[in-house]
Specification:
The complex is a heterodimer of chains A (358) and B (451). Chain A is mainly α. Chain A is built from 14 helices and two strands. Chain A has a two-stranded antiparallel ribbon with strand order 1-2. In chain A, helix 4 crosses helix 9, helix 4 packs antiparallel against helix 11 and helix 5 crosses helix 11. The radius of gyration of chain A is 22 Å and the shape is globular. The two termini of chain A are 18 Å apart. Chain B is an alpha/beta fold and 451 residues long. In chain B, helix 9 packs parallel to helix 11. Chain B folds into two domains: 214 residues, P-loop containing nucleotide triphosphate hydrolases (Rossmann fold), CATH 3.40.50; 210 residues, Rossmann fold (3-Layer(aba) Sandwich). In chain B, the strands form four sheets. A six-stranded mixed beta sheet of chain B has the order 6-7-8-3-9-10, sandwiched between helices. A six-stranded mixed beta sheet of chain B has the order 14-15-16-13-17-18, sandwiched between helices. A four-stranded antiparallel beta sheet of chain B has the order 2-1-4-5, covered by helices on one side. The chains are: A mainly alpha (358), B alpha/beta (451). At the A-B interface, helix 1, strand 1, helix 9 and helix 10 of A face helix 2, helix 3, strand 14 and helix 9 of B.
């Protein structure tokens, strides 16, 4: 109780940018980079030259790394736009992984229900189905937050594990491909797949979905007051109430769109890349999307730019993991450290802790 | 303790708030600090309390130079701070605060000023003024030699007038130096032994003379008669003609649209409940309300957003369809700048963050936003609280024009001066200690039996 009381007397106050804080942030960045390098070198038997060889070979041919990065970029950017939108409205959507899996499931079930549908309709309907599945998965938790006061960070985070096990059950049971020895569903029908662009490796037409979505988001941001509404709601719901707008409805709307976009990201990963439903369909896009959204700061262009950087980073790390024998868990550890540095940096740049005056 | 400051300066970003403040505060006196909204009163008190550190200058306590790295240092030096907005954690209660005080700060027990709540009742059930009284108790429990009070509002309430009189006597008896910011010039001249005024970032002493009001701002704190209402000349016919407020255990209160009404109440927590219930009741009936809470100036504003963002949505809500902008960015910026100028918000930059504004300027911004919002009824709860004379003139001008636009103005106040000012121009009722409405402004003398 005493600790809680003392903590409650602390307050995060705005402060001017002072040199010692800037120096502290620089120092923290250097320390984290050193820790990351030490961790990588400690967990692999290879020397530093193996890393250089791996990175240079991964970026040797434009025809290889551009399509590979795009395959990562498209679902990651969609999920990041979704998570960023909800965050702007004051809703932390940590359940991106669950919504990605459910979105993929939605599209996949539609394909199973309507196997004879022709190409443009099949893809459009599948995207809509994925959006609805993802939106429902996220909307449910926003209702729990607004009507029952359940903390969305906890509920959406736990939903990831719930859905992961549910998908594991489905692909191991009712949806399992009887002809395969792997635990996976049957292959997706041709009409539902995103066609690959010839001469560009694994790059596929799903990028069109991202372009259309981004343009819509940019128009919403620039030409309407929705963006301001979300920001004010995230800042102070009472400010929105004062304008006779229900803040709970704003949160519900934002969470539905957020979940929907994550669902679409899941479908794009399934129909554009993997073609079958598996338990580890997403290599962690739902979690990386949180990082991208935080760094993207809720604006469309900055989020897309951050997603490009992350796609390049993930492509590089994947190469290093594959070629230099770095454990796959190091990827998460380094990205987590990076986020920590960024968040602390942002806070320290503008705020300082002071004891509440009593 | 004789507290003296020498050449104190403080700059936020590019804005120089304090420009070399030099003053001496004599021991055992009650010092009143006057000044316009945003003139630097709060920043000055926060520097004395160790919340902010000055860019330049020094603080001397009994002739010795002191440096407060944190508020805890100031408390150890015998300086207690009463904040403008109470910081009390909503889930805490008096018992827990007492526990923290005894453990962490050289304090005595909490003095008994408040009897309405039990000691284990959480602070979220307290009204704003009750929280202020608790803050005052906490400050006194630290056995201060200097007490810094930033716009104490409970001292103006009928309910706590006795408490305030007792406190003033206690300060003088104990030789406690009190430095408090104040907007009410009459109260300042009665209660304070010495007056100081902030002008352009500098503090100068002010002689206590009878023409204080005209010497300081030339403000009137009175309401001129509203413009005559011609029903045929209204820009649009009122959507509804009458408003009724139904609150628990009280007879319904009816208000005409267009018209001006004022409800005065001074009994806590009855008044607190009445305000909340009235607003909720009118909202539930679908009345298009614009509400300004002078008693909670920053609760309804988005603090980390800009002034423009806070105003933009109100503007577009009135002028747009489905959130699509039907007025250009440049037009909306012009409209925003017009209202910023009209209400005298300082600094007048639309890109400025609301959290950086002073309390009075936040109050002005809430009025500016309400003026852009399309509504049937404007409810102002303690509209003058925290405003200087120029601010009062600007917001009153807007308020009394409401009926001319076919709208209703309802002023809910626990400040008798506000109620008296609006008494002459509209329907005024007061709630007595049982919540029964009366057509006079002296609810204290009414008993429930003769109701």
């Amino acid at each position: 109780m005493r600790l809680a009381a003392t903590l409650d007397l602390l307050e995060l106050r705005k402060a001017g940018r002072t040199p010692w804080r800037t120096r502290l942030v620089t120092l923290a960045t250097v320390i984290v980079t050193v820790i990351a390098i030490v961790l990588i070198l400690a967990t692999t038997s290879r020397d530093a030259r193996a890393f250089v060889t791996s990175i240079s070979s991964n970026f040797a041919a434009v025809g290889f790394w551009v399509p590979e990065c795009t395959v990562i970029f498209v679902p990651l950017a969609l999920a990041s736009l979704g998570v960023g939108l909800a965050r702007r409205a004051g809703f932390w959507n940590i359940g991106g992984e669950a919504q990605i899996l459910l979105g993929a499931l939605g599209g996949f079930l539609l394909a199973r229900l309507l196997p004879d549908l022709r190409a443009p309709f099949s893809q459009t309907l599948a995207i809509v189905a994925a959006f609805i599945f993802g939106a429902c998965a996220c909307g449910l938790f926003s209702l729990l937050k607004t009507h029952r006061g359940a903390d969305e960070v906890l509920t959406t985070l736990l939903s990831n594990f719930l859905v992961l096990h549910f998908i594991a059950y489905l692909v191991g049971g009712p949806l399992r491909d009887p002809e395969s020895k792997w635990i996976q569903s049957s292959t997706l029908f041709e009409a539902y797949r995103f066609a690959r662009i010839s001469g560009f490796g694994r790059m596929n037409t799903s990028i069109v979905v991202l372009i259309i979505g981004s343009v819509c988001f940019l128009l919403l941001e620039r030409r309407t007051s929705w963006s301001t509404l979300l920001k004010l709601n995230g800042d102070n719901p009472n400010a929105v109430s004062a304008l006779r707008i229900d803040p709970n409805r704003v949160i519900l709307g934002a969470s539905l769109v957020s979940g929907g976009l994550c669902g679409m990201a899941g479908w794009i990963e399934l129909a554009g890349n993997q073609y079958r439903l598996v338990q580890d369909l997403s290599p962690g896009y739902g979690f990386y999307a949180i990082l991208v959204a935080v760094i993207g700061g809720g604006t469309v262009l900055r989020t897309l730019l951050t997603a490009v950087v992350f796609a390049l980073l993930l492509h590089t790390i994947d190469g290093v993991v594959r070629d230099a024998g770095v454990p796959v868990y190091m990827k998460e550890a380094i990205l987590g450290l990076g986020l920590l540095v960024y968040v602390v940096n942002e806070r320290l740049r503008t705020h300082s802790f002071v004891v509440r005056p009593h | 303790m004789i507290l003296a400051v020498e050449c104190l300066s403080k700059t936020f970003g590019t804005r120089k708030v304090l420009k070399g403040v030099t003053a001496t505060f004599r021991e055992g006196f009650v010092h009143g600090i006057l000044g316009q909204n945003g003139s630097g009163k709060t920043v000055f008190l926060k520097i004395l309390a160790g919340v902010f550190s000055p860019d330049e200058g020094a603080i001397h306590a009994d002739g010795t130079k002191v440096v407060f790295a944190s508020p805890a240092n100031a408390v150890r030096a015998g300086i207690a701070y009463f904040p403008q907005i109470p910081y009390l954690p909503p889930t805490f209660n008096l018992d827990q605060i007492q526990h923290v005080l005894r453990r962490n700060i050289r304090g005595s027990g909490l003095p008994e000023l408040l009897a309405e709540h039990s000691k284990d009742e959480p602070f979220r059930h307290y009204s704003l003024l009750e929280k202020e009284v608790v803050e005052c108790q906490i400050a006194l429990a630290q056995i201060p030699r200097v007490l810094l009070m930033d716009e104490p509002r409970f001292v103006r309430s009928l309910q706590y007038q006795d408490v305030w009189a007792r406190l003033l006597a206690y300060f003088r008896r104990q030789g406690i130096t009190v430095i408090m910011t104040v907007h009410d010039l009459d109260a300042a001249s009665h209660e304070c032994d010495e007056l100081h005024i902030f002008q352009e970032g500098r503090l100068s002493s002010l002689p206590k003379t009878s023409d204080l009001r005209t010497r300081v701002f030339g403000g009137t704190r009175s309401v001129r008669p509203p413009p005559a209402i011609s029903t045929t000349a209204l820009p649009q016919a009122p959507r509804i003609r009458q408003l009724t407020i139904n609150t628990a255990n009280r007879s319904p209160l009816q208000f005409e649209i267009p018209g001006i009404s004022c409800v005065y109440g001074a009994h806590y927590p009855l008044w607190n409940g009445f305000v909340e219930e009235s607003i909720a009741d009118l909202r539930a009936k679908g009345t298009r309300l614009a509400v300004i809470r002078g008693d909670r100036p920053d609760r309804c504003l988005a603090q980390r957003s800009s002034i423009a963002e806070n105003l933009e949505l109100a503007l577009h809500r009135a002028k747009s369809h489905f959130g699509l902008r039907t007025i250009s960015k440049s037009t909306s910026l012009d409209m925003m700048q017009t209202v910023i100028k009209r209400f005298g918000i300082s600094p007048a930059t639309p890109e400025g963050e609301v959290g950086n504004l002073s309390g009075g300027n936040k109050q002005r911004l809430a009025f500016a936003r309400a003026s852009l919002l399309d509504h049937d009824c404007l409810i102002c709860v303690n509209p003058w609280r925290g405003l200087d004379a120029a601010g009062i003139d600007a917001v009153t001008e807007m308020m009394i024009e409401e009926p001319a636009h076919g709208k209703a103005l309802i002023v809910l106040t626990d400040d008798k001066k506000e109620a008296e000012a609006f008494q002459g121009i509209g329907k005024t009722v007061s709630l007595n200690s049982c919540g029964i409405a009366r057509n006079n402004l002296d609810p204290q003398n009414e008993t429930c039996s003769n109701a």
